[in-house]
Amino acid sequence: MFRLPSPLHKIENELTEEFRVQLYLKRDDLIHPDISGNKWRKLKYNIAQVQQQQKDTILTFGGAYSNHITATAAAGRHFGYKTIGIIRGEEHTPLNESLRFAQDHGMQLVYADRTLYREKALEVILRDTPYMHDIEQYYILPEGGANEYALSGCREITEEIEIDFDYIYCACGTGTTIAGIAQGLKKHQQAVGISVLKGVDFLTNELIRQQDKHVLHQLAFDTNYHFGGYAKTTPELLDFIQHFYSQHHIMLDYVYTGKMMYAVLDNIQRGKFAKGTTIVAVHTGGVANANVFNLP
Ligand SMILES: *Cc1c(COP(=O)(O)O)cnc(C)c1O
What we know:
Layout: E1 8-11, H1 14-18, E2 22-27, H2 38-52, E3 57-62, H3 67-79, E4 82-88, H4 97-104, E5 107-112, H5 114-119, H6 122-125, E6 138-141, H7 148-160, E7 167-172, H8 176-183, E8 190-195, H9 206-209, H10 213-217, E9 219-222, H11 235-248, H12 257-269, E10 278-283
The chain binds pyridoxal-5'-phosphate.
C-alpha cells in the first residue's frame, strides 16, 4: 500500500549530458495514490502521536486547494481517525475537487473567515458547529502539517537515498520539508529549497530558525522561481511541464514540482554545477490536484 522507500529515478536529457551532471528524481509522488509525497512524510509521526495520545480526531487547517487537507482526510480514513478540516474562507458550492475528495473521505469541513483563520481562534471557529464539545479529543495539526514531527518524517527522505549526492532540491511552501531533508544530510551535502511563494523569507520561519547551526549552514533558499506567486503559472512553465512529460513520462504540477524541476534544469543550464556533480530532485507529489491537463 505504501511504497517505501520511494524509488530513485535517473533523469537523462540533453542538459545532463552536455553539462556532465547526474540527475535523479526521488519519486515520493509514488508513495501512495491518495496520501502522496511529502504530505505522507509530514503525517507519519503525527499519526503516531495521535495514537500515542489516544486521540480519536485530527483537526487541521488549510486553504480550499490544499494538498495537506486531502492527504489528512485520506490518512484519517486509512488509519481510522475522524478528521476535521478548518478551511480558510467561505464555503463555495459545489465543492471543488480537493474539498469534495476530503469530504468523501469523511472529513468534516468547517469554514473560517480569514481573520479567525489567521488567529487559529478554534473556540470561536467551532462555536456554532457540532464539534465544539469534543475539543480535548482533538489532535491539533498546524496548517501544512508544519511541526517537529513533520521534520522527523521529512528527514527520512534524505536517509532513504543510498547514492552519494551533492545537492538535493525540493519545492517549498512552509519550508518544513526542506528543513527536515537538511537534517539528514552528510557534511558535504547541500539542500536547496525552491520557493513557490513570492516574497517569503524562510529564515524568519520559527521551525527553520530553531534548526542547529550546521543544518542552517547546509540549507539555502532560491526565491527566483515562483513564477508570479503561489499557484500562478506562465505559458513558459506550462510548456516546460508538458515537455518534461513528453520526454520522461513523469507528471509535474504547476504549483510545486514544476517550478522546482524548472529551477534545477535552469541551474544546470547556467553552469552552476561542476562536472560530475550529483543532484537529487524530490518529486513531492501533488499532481492529482494540479497538473497541466487539469487546470482549475
Ligand atoms: C505541500 C507541498 C510542498 C511544500 O511543502 P512544505 O513542507 O510546506 O514546504 C511541496 N510540494 C508539494 C507537492 C506539496 O503538496
